[in-house]
Amino acid sequence: MSLFKVRNWWKTQCPTIEPAYDSFSLHCARLCIEEGEKDSLVVGSHSGQLCIYRPSGGTNLPDLDAEDDEQGSANGSANELAENVFQHADVILEVQLPLPVLGVSSGKFTTTNKTDPRLQLAVLHPMKLCIYQLVTVDGLADHGDHTRLVTLYDHALSKPAFSLCHGPFGGVKGRDFLCVQHMDGSLRFFEQDGISYERTLATDRFIPAPLHYVPRVDCFVTVAPSWVLECYRYQDVAEALETLRRHDPIWALCIGEYALDLQVHQISNTESVIVILGENNLLCVSDTGKVRFIKKLDYSPVCFHSFVTGWYWEPGARLMLAVVSESGSLLLYESDQIIWSAQLGHVPVAIGRANVAGLPGALVTLGPTGALAVGYLGSEPQLFRVPALNLAPFEIARCQKELLELEREIRAGVDPSDASIANAAAERDVQLEVAIQGEPVPCTEQQVTGLLSSSEMCQLSVTVRVEPKLEMLQLTVATDQAIGCSKDAFLFRDVAAHSTERFDVWLYPAVPSLPASRTATVYCSYTSKQGITRVLERSVLLPVRLFLKPAQPSKEAQHKLTLTVVPPPAQHTAGSVLGRLFPEFAPEGSSASALALQPVAGGGDGRKVTIVAAKSTNRFRVQSDELGLMALVLECLIGRLQGRESVGHATEQDEAAGRKDHSSRVQVTIGGVPSVSGLIRSLQVHCDLRKAVKQLENDLEIATGQMRLFERRFVVKLQERSLRALDGILMLLKRNHTAVAKVCLQIKTMRQKLKLAQIDLTAILRLFHLCYSHAANAPGGKYFEHLTALLTHSVLDSTEQSYEEMMLPVVRFLHQTGPLKNSTEQSEGTPFDEEFFYTAKQTDRDPVDLSAHSQLLQGQLQRLLGRVNDRITTGTTARTSGSGSGRNSVDFEDQPLPEAHNEEAEEEEEENEKGQNEEANRPTDGSAGVEEFAQLSATASEWVNYEKMSDLPL
What we know:
This protein is an alpha+beta fold. Among the domains are: 425-444 and 453-544, Immunoglobulin-like, CATH 2.60.40.10; 548-645 and 666-671, TATA-Binding Protein; 686-821 and 851-871, no CATH class. It is built from 17 helices and 42 strands. The chain has a 6-stranded antiparallel sheet with strand order 37-39-40-41-38-42. Strands 1-28-27-26 form a 4-stranded antiparallel sheet, with no helix packed on it. α11 (782-790) runs antiparallel to α12 (803-816). The longest helix is centred in the last third of the chain and has 51 residues, at 723-773. It starts with 5 loop residues before the first strand and ends in a 14-residue tail after the last helix.
């Protein structure tokens, strides 16, 4: 921000108030309509408006061009310039043309009368070039003279135009020719005798760039799409026969960036300069191709204007450059030295310099919406004044009253019923149906078939019915990281009303690992013609066959979870309960009490999950050596026990109300929680892989830097023609290229391992979430809800932060606040974690220490989950010990029952005792079903008693 500001001297608004102006829309020149006139401001817009202004500067302002004998009065008048009010007489011409105006220029474009000093206007349209003459008609009344625009001639263009330049091509005297640059880079020349011809420059032209004529050397300068400044001689370009003259540029200079604008000035009798405004640099090149200076810009330029103070044949002539930045600052340079800086009132798209009445050398700016202003550089700074401090006493009661009033106003303005109405309207406007079509088929995706040869894929069908006309509609398919999708996004614009579309995508396992969930969610976001945006969501369960296949059950496993179902599932004589729950894996009529499932991909390494059903069929055990494999199987088992999923088929989760009722009647309780050590090990593996990827990325950056250094040295040796040194450089290049390729391959492999670690960690977190959600006496409240919500998120690492860095504040909050905290641990440990503040810091030189965040997250998460597990285990142990049976894994024995007990008689006695004690022992809270289940479990296990527990007889 500059200390000074550009003072407004005159301003107006062009007729078109839309953003229809660019850097070619402003032209400042003396049209020589009358004797002794000043410069006129010609403005053309893309809407076709052509306006010519001549600011009068008022009637009482002195002419600063005239010399004043009294120096003091002259200085006083110069310092007291005030802003002039726009007058109607300032408008010379205002006309609406039938075509958009791309550029305006003035010159001697006719040969009628060489003694006529008047200039003509050349207006460039997209497909036409028109030459106009300004004619002044004497007024017969008090309103004065007026000006008309007379068309002299026009030229039709065969291709869309981009820019226009003029000059005395070929060194002619007293005449100006025109050159139009088309969008494809070709040039069209127009001479006054009606001769026109088209030429194409030597190099390829895909992006048009500014084109200017250099009168001193009779050449054209432009910037090629390869960011090279090229200079072409007019005689070479105008030559029709290619065999006579060459069409290559006479010199070329690489500027390394796109040129925003380009201007040409003659600064002496023997030299002209070309000033180029790039995206990051300001360059000045002589007409012979030599660089005079390069100015590195620390801001983003928008437009610029260059001019020469004094006459070029005088030794005191100076080249001045005025550059406007995107923040609205005007920076004035003398060659490459900045001499002034001021702040503009708005950010213009075009800037010029004009000599107007009463203010020579005025700055003319044109805004994107047609705000035309004439100003000058102010010499008086506008200092910022600190406002007076409000020393009134702070009244808590008054502030609290104001806060209550604001909350009451917000509450009155928000209607909670609008959400339900909006959701119902969204369901009526767009109907979204998602379903799995047919059975899984062998996968045909190329990136999967080589890695997972035996994988299958299923077809997901999405049907959208649109009632009103929509501006935009987008469909997104969201799945787990381990699930691939043939196309996950569809975008449509201007959707017709009452239309129906169906889209089919293929889902398949993408990596040799089990996903945390097999739910595929389809999001439909649409925007109506009124600009209202709504989002719909539908979910569907993928078939289990895509990810699991049967295997040989195992007797022992490291991790075990016990599920209890109330009421127990109905048994059929045709087969076991597992055969009814998983008919796609168990043969028809099978009576096995155990079922093992392993991943379809990578199942040969022994990883499996075993499901064992107890004799009473109200208890199930899920066991495995890896926690990451248990989440998908456990979720599928719970869903099929509660009836939320059709057996053997994948349907929408909440498809019918009957299944919701059945799911609410069936209670599935998980006894116990997996050990937190497995989660901590997975977090540590993820952290180690993340650090390895970071280290490999740093190695790749160093290797590529060395590669660039060797390439530069190779170019230098090549220019010096030092052939002996080329052998050493070539050897270094080959070795460095091999090192870069090796590091790239290592990064690719390590990122794949990191992705597998993320999937495994997500599955373990999902497993803990299922265990906590179905625990018998899990702690309630919003803090426990926050904890379970934390365990459902997918593990993703951003480029700036790892998963540990993002989750650490949440776990720290749950660990130190709420009912899950432990006051004794707060006094023993350090609550502020000094290691985090001293180790896990980021500076310009030292990167973030990932291990510090991971260690803090592991420690706090272990203590937090340990407290929750202790509460769950304590409640389960208390209920089990109260029954007096010590029910354990004995119910899963596959041995015949002892004959000492009469099962039918005992069940009748148990039902009678339960009916007598039911009213007395019925709890008042919502845990009635759980207590009934505890009593049923206790009584059902009393008739089974063994001296020694044995392994599963599988």
